[in-house]
Design brief:
145 residues; alpha/beta
């Protein structure tokens, strides 16, 4: 087999997975349906291989994974302020996401990958009270508590 044949066969094998992968858009807003300083939507249910695209609709926001709220096999991510960031979901689990400048105001969201349950220690991550309250609301609203 030539290298070209191997590459072509590999691409064909991956094609069904790539074709079914979805892109979920999340907007970073100063004001949304849920109030001030929010991700919209604040909950995404996705599959391994999907991508979550964080869009800074309003200025002054970023999206980054929270320490202690990331499943094994998923790389942490840190978006820059006012920059779009694409996150490929590589592992089953539940991901906590924050806007660093507005964490104290509760600007957080949850990504559930492959209908995974919320880990017992998910809410043990260090965070401001308002962020914790928002996470609890999101989990309860989506039947994950």
């Amino acid at each position: 087999m030539t290298i070209k044949t191997i590459i072509a066969a590999s691409l064909l094998a991956l094609a069904p997975a790539l074709a079914s992968a979805e892109v979920h858009e999340v907007h970073m807003l100063n004001k949304g349906e849920a109030g001030m300083m929010v991700f919209e939507p604040h909950f995404v249910s996705a599959a391994v291989g999907d991508t979550v695209k964080f869009i800074p609709t309003d200025k002054g926001h970023n999206a980054e994974s929270m320490k202690g709220m990331l499943p094994d096999g998923q790389e942490k991510f840190v978006g820059k302020i006012n920059q779009e960031v694409d996150v490929e979901l590589t592992a089953e689990g539940v991901i906590g996401v924050e806007c660093k400048p507005h964490l104290g105001m509760g600007m957080v969201m949850v990504i559930q990958v492959a209908d995974a349950p919320v880990p017992d220690d998910f809410m043990e991550a260090k965070m401001p009270r308002k962020a914790k309250e928002t996470f609890e609301e999101i989990l309860t609203e989506n039947g994950l508590n």
